[in-house]
Amino acid sequence: MKYYLYNSLANNGIKPDFGPDVTPVDAVGLDYVEYLKGLAPEDELVLVGGDGTLNYFINAVKGFELKNKVWFYGSGTGNDFLTDIGRTPGEEVPINDYLKNLPTVYVNGMEKLFINNMGFGIDGYCCEVADRIKEESPQKEIDYSGIAIKGLLFHFKPCHAVITVDGETHEFDHVWIAPTMKGRFYGGGMNMAPEQDRRSDKLTVVVYHCRSKLKALMAFPSIFKGEHVRKTKLVSVFRGKEISVKFSRPCAAQIDGETVLNVTEYRAILRNP
Fold first, then answer.
1. In whole angstroms, what is the distance from residue 51 CA to residue 73 CA?
2. Distance CA 22, CA 44 (A)
3. pLDDT in tens, the chain (273 residues)
4. Please, what is the end-to-end C-alpha distance for the chain in angstroms?
5. Could you give the CA distance from residue 102 to residue 201 in angstroms, rounded to a whole number?
6. Which of 46, 146, 225, 242 has CA 20 to 30 A from 60's CA?
7. Which of 272, 257, 253, 273 has its CA nearest to residue 106?
8. What is the pTM of this model?
9. Is the CB of residue 256 less than 8 Å from the CB of residue 54?
10. How, if at all, do strands 69-74 and 44-49 pair?
């Protein structure tokens, strides 16, 4: 039997219409490990949601051997995972293979897995501002591009950054973004690491650095098509198994779209089996 796990607190509390032959399960407060232990070997699980749903699941079952087939049904606002693997929301996608060999990030005393990225810089700032908007106006649609543009022009101040990749250190001034990527996409369709393969044994860190706000703003739209990496005076790309990023002042960060405040550094590691 297939069990469809959905978040009753998402989508303004509207329960998805799964049809008459589906067994829906409200995942709010659910102990995933205990739930999985109670399934028969032939039972299958369908996760309904977006990138945040996937991130919650991989951390909830961390260290547990998944014996059941797991599917993903994209219905959230963020679907960068599906975009990366060439699939679309509204279809059931088998994901067991994608849940293996995931990277771990260490930040602010936390240890978490991520499936898409660990972001740091103006991307984290955008998530921080979006969280405030959602608290004040839950029904309001979030304009992430608008938040980013205003941040570039007025609110976000770039940092000095120390980037260490597999023991080799690089330093940059005027850094706006320094995410570590497991997949290619983040931020709702931004092709941040166009050469990254999520099945690879390495991660990609992309450093977007520019003294001029105007130049940084003009080049920003090129990220959506992955063309920013050609601008080698503004963008530096490194690949490795262990990546650490340290900023000169605290900034907001995000893990698969979930905000982490007051971050000065993080360390991401991909341990191969």
1. 11
2. 12
3. 889 998 877 655 556 666 666 778 888 889 999 999 999 999 999 999 889 899 999 999 999 999 999 999 998 667 899 999 999 998 999 999 999 999 999 999 999 999 999 999 999 999 999 889 888 887 777 888 888 888 888 899 999 999 999 999 999 999 999 999 999 999 888 999 999 999 999 999 999 999 999 999 999 999 999 999 999 999 999 999 999 999 999 999 999 989 999 999 999 999 876
4. 31
5. 10
6. 242
7. 253
8. 0.92
9. yes
10. parallel
Residue 157, C-beta contacts closer than 8 angstroms, at least 6 positions apart: 249
Architecture of domain 2-100: 3-Layer(aba) Sandwich (3.40)
Give the sign of the dihedral formed by CA 161, CA 84, CA 260, CA 269.
Answer: negative
Q: Which tokens in the block code for residue 125?
A: 């700032």
Residue 41 contacts by C-beta under 8 Å, 6 or more apart in sequence? 67, 68
Asked whether the beta carbons of 49 and 10 are under 8 A apart, the reply is: yes
Per the listing, tokens 């959905």 go with 6
Q: State the residue for tokens 């309904």.
A: 48
Give the tokens for residue 260: 């982490």
> Six-digit token pair at 43?
């039972």
* Strand ranges in the chain using DSSP code E only, listed in sequence order: 2-6, 23-26, 44-49, 69-74, 92-94, 104-107, 110-113, 117-120, 159-165, 168-177, 180-181, 185-186, 190-191, 203-209, 235-240, 242-255, 258-269
Helices (H), the chain: 32-37, 51-60, 80-84, 122-136, 144-150, 213-219
Task: Say if CB 64 and CB 36 are below 8 A apart.
Answer: yes
Q: Per DSSP, what are the bridge partners of residue 205?
A: 180, 238
Please state which CATH number belongs to domain 105-269: 2.60.200.40
